[in-house]
Design a protein that fits this description.
Blueprint lengths: L17 H4 L16 E3 L12 E3 L6 E3 L12 H8 L8 E3 L8 E4 L5 E3 L11 E3 L1 H4 L5 H5 L6 E6 L4 H7 L9 E5 L4 E5 L12 E5 L6 H9 L5 E10 L7 H8 L8 E3 L11 E9 L3 H13 L1 H4 L2 E9 L2
Parallel strand pairs: 3-4, 7-8
Antiparallel strand pairs: 1-2, 4-5, 5-6, 8-9, 9-10, 10-11, 12-14, 12-15, 13-14
């Protein structure tokens, strides 16, 4: 019977050496550093896979060696050790350029050098931490959010600590590919399937707030094939010092009808002390329900005393 860890025949998970062979050992000059600790998710059977193994702490580092000339065939951990007296480990980033994140590599699980710019489809030298790295940790945002000044995006597991705090527990078989966007602190969910035609309309971006759940995102996914409409909501407030902060917050950005969502466009998300503006998107067939819910909300007696007027305008796109 094959080993439940490495799937090879001749031993079992108690005697398997796969994990030992695939963890970088610190050299003598790094013996005082914390070693990565590996643990497995608690499961009730022996069907554990390599993807379910989680590093307790990757402790990634950014190593910059500007304008270093090298051959691609040289890029191995022992070459970096011999050249710079630094032993890179899983999750570390090595940058050979002096401009943004160009010419950078991330050390992969099997000590391979992953070319970081391959994941930046903008070509602007931003750093994106791929799922190849983050699938081995549930704490990717905390580990990588301050590692590089040009960080743009971190792909995340469905059970990453950062995600579960925002969206609750997510089914492990959920098909959305999740990423945290550093620039505007938003969540990106990509529903494009592998080996299928790529569709920008299947990439959704959501502001992080208390209303964001994966069930809400799933409902929007369900409506992909429906015709969508876009609204501009403008809210004018009466100057009033008696409005409680929490109530004011709810008046600025009310809960929407279940199939509608706020679009996080920076140039539209305009506000000052007494005026706020949002862009809202949803399926055309639900627009009457959406409009009624918005108007009913602002017509409430307790709300009207703080609101001068609202404007809800359909945008053609």
């Amino acid at each position: 019977m094959p080993c439940s860890i490495c799937k090879k025949i001749g031993h079992n998970k108690k005697t398997c050496t796969f994990l030992v062979k695939n963890i970088n050992k610190n050299n003598d000059d790094e013996k005082n550093e914390n070693q990565e600790k590996l643990y497995r998710n608690t499961i009730e059977n022996d069907n554990i896979t390599i993807e379910e193994e989680i590093y307790d702490n990757i402790l990634p580092k950014l190593i910059i060696r500007e304008n270093h000339k090298y051959n691609l065939s040289d890029l191995q951990c022992h070459y970096i050790k011999q050249t710079f007296n630094i032993m890179p480990k899983f999750g570390d980033i090595i940058q050979f350029s002096n401009d943004k994140a160009y010419d950078s590599y991330i050390i992969g699980y099997n000590n391979e050098f992953i070319y970081a710019p391959d994941y930046d489809d903008t070509g602007t030298g931003n750093l994106i931490i791929p799922y190849e790295i983050t699938k081995y940790t549930k704490n990717a945002v905390s580990l990588y959010k301050n590692i590089h000044p040009n960080l743009r995006k971190i792909y995340l597991r469905h059970d990453d600590i950062f995600i579960t705090k925002i969206m609750g527990l997510i089914d492990k078989y959920w098909t959305g590919k999740i990423a945290w966007l550093y620039d505007n602190n938003s969540i990106e969910v990509d529903f494009n399937e592998n080996n299928k035609i790529y569709d920008d309309n299947k990439i959704l971006i959501f502001k992080i707030d208390e209303n964001l759940t994966y069930q809400k995102i799933d409902e929007i996914k369900y409506n992909f094939n429906k015709k969508y409409v876009k609204y501009k909501l403008q809210i004018y407030f009466i100057e009033n010092d008696n409005c409680e902060d929490m109530k004011f917050k709810n008046l600025i950005k009310p809960l929407l009808y279940r199939s509608y969502y706020y679009e996080p466009k920076l140039y539209y998300d305009y506000c000052d002390v007494f005026y706020y503006e949002h862009i809202i998107v949803g399926p055309e067939e639900d627009k009457d329900f959406f409009q009624k819910e918005i108007y009913d909300f602002y017509e409430k007696k307790d709300h009207k005393k703080y609101i001068e007027k609202i404007k809800l305008k359909l945008i053609v796109f």
